[in-house]
Design a protein that fits this description.
With 241 residues, the protein is mainly α. Helices cover 74% and strands 0% of the residues.
Length: 241
Amino acid sequence: MTALAIMLIATGIADILRRLTARRWLAVAAVPVVVVGVAALAALWHPGDLVPLAVAAAAGITWVVLGARAERTGAHELAPLLVFGAAVGVLILLSGWDSDVGGLVAKWPSWVGFAVDPDRLLMIVGAGLLMTVTGNQLVRLILGSVGAVKPAGEPQPSDRLKGGRLLGPMERLLIFGLGLAGQLAAATAVVAAKSIIRFPEINAQKARENGGIGIDEVTEYFLVGSFASWIVALGGLALTG
């Protein structure tokens, strides 16, 4: 599933760039550049690689464009989710065409002393990037599609729960790392700790339902967002298995 790994790397880098700069075209242009660059480093230039890589580039560009539109307008959240899900499914189906990773990517693990298959290494990098800004985008789109996020400019449930954009990636990366280390059971402690820490903050909404945001909306935001975030983390682990 090397083409899928490359798509995750490309979208991850593009989403990070979209957060760092207001120039959306830079994030869009980064997708094909990263796809071609990583494919070259991994020596994926055989005829069978061309179609999956083209799908990866097209899906990545579409994801960035539709994701930016959904964030800007507060509508059409399902479109980028469908594109992302369809691209993952198609690239898994086409994975039989993927060549084995070669080139510098294949040589690097032995050079630094890592006992890891190059194909798996590429997927670990892609899934790791998925845990960061792209994961936040996926969670936000899911929240928007169920009405847990209001249009830009209006009071948001997230205003009542501080630090979610930072805690989300940290939580996913911790679960992802524990899973790679074979300690997935320890990730339950992360889930429990998050619930315990957030409970007083959620409960406090009973006393201060202001700005049009009540405890029911904050609770929905927390539960849907948390489950979506955990699914992203577990999905990344499944891809690297």
